[in-house]
Every structure is written in structure tokens, then in C-alpha cells.
Design brief:
Elements (H helix, E strand, L loop, with lengths): L10 H13 L17 E4 L3 E6 L6 E9 L16 E3 L5 E6 L4 E6 L4 E7 L12 E7 L3 E6 L3 E5 L4 E5 L19 E4 L5 E8 L4 E8 L4 E6 L11 E2 L6 E2 L3 E6 L2 E6 L5 E5 L4 E5 L21 H14 L1 E2 L3 E3 L4 E11 L12 E12 L4 E6 L10 E4 L2 E7 L4 E9 L1
Antiparallel strand pairs: 1-2, 2-3, 3-29, 4-5, 5-6, 6-7, 8-9, 9-10, 10-11, 12-13, 13-14, 14-15, 16-17, 18-19, 19-20, 20-21, 22-24, 23-24, 24-25, 25-26, 27-28, 28-29
Length: 409
């Protein structure tokens, strides 16, 4: 096996990705349904919403409320919608990267307030690199931090404790890995392991790669991602301009979970057993996978924009999270309606309407319910389960807040 091909990001692609990110921000005001489905009972107030939805599976009660985090005078970084963040194992605190001062802010979710700041250096012997790409909270007040240049373990004082060497790691055949995965998660068990997504530009495939920190060895697992990734890449012919689907990598319920942006496919990996499990389910409220209008032979920027808009109109999936109290997984998805395009430079027009859906799975990832949440307008950013509720990040007049969704039968 040769070295793993490293994905190259060109300046044009970087601009495309930035354009995509900013045009998919929260652009629409909260949307209220004019008519509710039969038997639906919905009560809305400024701070709390309660309702009962009937669907094909069973009746579910739900309630929504909004909470605000007291920053205690700290300038919290909301620019990425808490996309670069992690929670402790007990779900008592959320830790969020703050680009303003290159620190990690700890927010206490029980008191709903800023708790502590952890400072880091960009350069030098304890340097993390210029920017965080992702990080994980570890035991004993440590952090696993991935930047664009490297991955390392630091203590809570910002001191480098151990480097993570993906580039020089080898597989059982002696082949060198030769790159840094695009995304990584740290798993702290008897043997320290890091999991990453490896991309092959030639085959247009995504792989799950596992690095043993102790032995500097890696294994590669085939995600069979052609349908959910390669077949949905939008690339302008004879150029280097393309948009590829997001691939999500999370560690929930002691399981590595890989999921995809425009396909409902989910791949599970048990770090103790070293095998993949592919989840197939059939949602009733959204398609399983998007379909292209005219195939993926893209001749122009305008054509690429139109195809990408069509994808978002059909469905966009987000990663599943584990609800430990109710022993179930929760996953958001959305569909969009856009205004007519008014700016040729925009990747997609402004959003006119967005519908959010919540899929509920049991502990074995069997789909047991799905429902539309009319009062939720979610497009981007962190959500997680705590105490039986789904917490969804919301920007409240430049202050950190969460919409909490509670489900009950």
C-alpha cells in the first residue's frame, strides 16, 4: 500500500467553501406554520413552546424553551456557531474555541454561565498552530487539539504533553500515512487512539483511519462512500473548482459515527471490536439521498450553483447525537425554499423558508420516530443531548443561547 493521497485545497476552493459557509447561515426569521396537521396541538409563547404531533409512528409530545448563557463579561466567539467545541463526559460543561484570543472557553451548562478560560500559544514549543480545526476534552484536564498543521495533546495550562504523528505512522505493511486527516476525534481508552477521515482524490473516496498513538501505526477502513460522497461531488469540468459533501465524524455512546450531508447513510465503528456497521433506514418525511437534476456533469459556475441549491432544497442531513437518559439517538435534517437569485456571486440565494425535522432512533439505530419541528429554524452549528433534551445553539442578539427540545410520549 502506498502513501495516502493528501487532499489539496486551492484558493478558489477555499473561497467557494467560505461562500458556502456564510450563505448557509441563519438568514430567515422564525417561521410559524399557518396550518397544523390534524390532531396537532401547538402553543407558542416568547420563551416556551409546547405541542403534540401525530405521525406515522406514534404520538410524541414536545416542548421548546430558550436559555441564554451569561458571559460574565467574556467576549465569547459565536462566529462558527460553536462548530469547534466539545463537551465533558458528564455533559456539565461545553468547551468552545475562541479565535479572538486563541483560547478555550468553558461554559457551565448547569448554571448557564461562563466558567473559565484556558489559554494557548500559537507558536513556539507549546504552539498549537495558527488555528484550531477541532479539539476534544480529555480526562485529567487535558485537550486533544487539531490544527491545520498538526495534532497534539496539551494540559489545561497550555503546555504540550504529547505530539500525535499521523504523517510518519505506518500500516502493517510498512506504508507511511504521509498526511493529516481532514477531521479527527480522540478516543481515550486503554490504548489512546485517534480517528480521522482520509480522502483519496483519485478514487474520490472517504475512509475511516485509526491511529494508535502508542505504536505510531494506523489502520484504514473502507466506508464504501461512493454513493454518499463521490457521486454527489459537484465539480466544474476542466477546472479545479468543486463542492464536495460534508462528511461528519463524531464519537457518541462509545461509538465512532460517520454520517453524510446529502445522504441519510450512517456508518458505525466500535473501537473495541474494530468493525464497521452500516445503518440503512427509510425516512418518510425526507428523501434518503438527494438526486441531481441533470447528472453531475457541471459545465459552468451557474450550473454548479443551481445543482447545489437543488440539493439543499431536497434535504440536508446533520450528524446523530446520543441521548443517554432516554437511550436513543437524535438527528436533525432540513429542507429549504430559496428566493430567486439576486446576486451572481452568491453560492445560493437567500433562504425564504426552512423546515427542520427530527429523527429518533433506538439504541440499535432503528428509526422509531420522525417529526417536523415547525418552531425550530436551524441551519448550522452545534447541537447535543443533555438530560433528555436536545440543545441546539442559537445566536441571541450576539449572545450565546440554546433552544432546548424535549420529547415525551
Amino acid at each position: 500500500m502506498g502513501g495516502v493521497g493528501k487532499p489539496k485545497l486551492n484558493p478558489i476552493l477555499k473561497l467557494e467553501k467560505e461562500a458556502r459557509f456564510f450563505w448557509l447561515l441563519f438568514l430567515a426569521e422564525t417561521i410559524f406554520m399557518k396550518y397544523l396537521k390534524i390532531f396537532a396541538i401547538l402553543w407558542i409563547s416568547i420563551s416556551c413552546t409546547k405541542g403534540k404531533l401525530e405521525n406515522e409512528y406514534q404520538s410524541l409530545n414536545y416542548s421548546l424553551d430558550t436559555v441564554r448563557i451569561n458571559s460574565n463579561g467574556k467576549n465569547l466567539d459565536l462566529t462558527r456557531f460553536l462548530a469547534i467545541s466539545d463537551l465533558d463526559n458528564e455533559r456539565n460543561s461545553i468547551f468552545s474555541y475562541n479565535e479572538f484570543d486563541h483560547s478555550v472557553d468553558e461554559l457551565d451548562l448547569n448554571t448557564l454561565s461562563f466558567a473559565k478560560k484556558y489559554s494557548f500559544e500559537k507558536e513556539g514549543p507549546n504552539g498549537t498552530g495558527e488555528y484550531f480545526y477541532t479539539f476534544n476534552v480529555m480526562k485529567d484536564c487535558r485537550f486533544f487539539i487539531m490544527s491545520y498543521e498538526k495534532s497534539s495533546i496539551f494540559d489545561c495550562n497550555g503546555s504540550l504533553k504529547q505530539g500525535v504523528d499521523w504523517i510518519n505512522s505506518k500500516d502493517l505493511g510498512g506504508a507511511i500515512y504521509g498526511e493529516i486527516p481532514r477531521n479527527q476525534v480522540f478516543v481515550e481508552s486503554n490504548e489512546l487512539k485517534v480517528f480521522g477521515l482520509g480522502y483519496d482524490n483519485i478514487k474520490k473516496e472517504v475512509y475511516l483511519d485509526m491511529l494508535s498513538i502508542e505504536h505510531d501505526t494506523f489502520k484504514r477502513f473502507n466506508l464504501n462512500s461512493k454513493k454518499s460522497y463521490a457521486d454527489l461531488i459537484l465539480a466544474i469540468e476542466n477546472t479545479s473548482i468543486f463542492i464536495d459533501p460534508e462528511v461528519y465524524l463524531k464519537y457518541e455512546n462509545n461509538t465512532i459515527i460517520v454520517s453524510f450531508e446529502f445522504s441519510n447513510e450512517i456508518v458505525l465503528f466500535d473501537p473495541k471490536e474494530d468493525f464497521l456497521k452500516f445503518i440503512d433506514y427509510s425516512p418518510k418525511k425526507t428523501p434518503k439521498i438527494v438526486k441531481s437534476m441533470n447528472g453531475i456533469n457541471i459545465a459552468s459556475r451557474a450550473h454548479m450553483q443551481k445543482e447545489f441549491q437543488s440539493f439543499l432544497e431536497q434535504v440536508k442531513y446533520y450528524p446523530p447525537v446520543w441521548d443517554s437518559l432516554n437511550k436513543q439517538y437524535l438527528r436533525l435534517s432540513s429542507t429549504r425554499v430559496f428566493h430567486e437569485i439576486d446576486n451572481d456571486l452568491a453560492l445560493v440565494p437567500k433562504t425564504k423558508e426552512i423546515k427542520n425535522y427530527l429523527s429518533v432512533f433506538d439504541a440499535e439505530f432503528n428509526l422509531i420516530n420522525e417529526l417536523e419541528i415547525p418552531d425550530l429554524s436551524y441551519t448550522q452549528g452545534l447541537y447535543f443531548a443533555k438530560n433528555g433534551s436536545l440543545w441546539v445553539f442559537i445566536n441571541l442578539d450576539d449572545e450565546m443561547g440554546f433552544v432546548r427540545i424535549n420529547l415525551s410520549k
